Sequence to fold (227 residues):
Amino acid sequence: KAGVTQTPRYLIKTRGQQVTLSCSPISGHRSVSWYQQTPGQGLQFLFEYFSETQRNKGNFPGRFSGRQFSNSRSEMNVSTLELGDSALYLCASSLLVAGSTDTQYFGPGTRLTVL
Amino acid sequence: AQRVTQPEKLLSVFKGAPVELKCNYSYSGSPELFWYVQYSRQRLQLLLRHISRESIKGFTADLNKGETSFHLKKPFAQEEDSAMYYCALSGAGGTSYGKLTFGQGTILTVHP
Fold:
């Protein structure tokens, strides 16, 4: 099976702009989680979507949002970009077997640079 | 609140030496613990998880609930083990859906 794919791989934006990142999960996986990775804060959970519903959200401002489509593909959006939003954004998909915590399979990430 | 601590940012060993990467966690319930690894220019991937009780690439990890630790061990390190290693925790219940809490990571370098 093809792995998790993320597009674009690199983005450069300026402060105040907005950005949309895309994630295609492994075929058959219905849960998609998003993480922000920075040198200072490490890997931090943003949110998780399952069956087009956000089930969990991390401690990030409302400028960070996401959605999931019926084919399980997910997008995340960051509005009014700030310099501190520069980071590697990772998405991960999992199969979701009832009664257990599934392995998350990670994409290569989107490197966002805010100038 | 859940927290994962990896006390060593850098760890260097020589080939053939034993290696232990430390991981301590804080969680009020029964967590699931994972080790993820990121090799150079590759994506983050699962190395092992405690419920599987497997040995992957010679690595093992035992969950010690008394000491709240999940240390990763390998008796004889190889150069190809050089990578960044992350310990991660998943809790139970609705607030944990799809959420992994990661430690800061340990960069392991195995010298020839």
User: Anything to note?
Assistant: DSSP finds no helices and eleven strands in chain B.
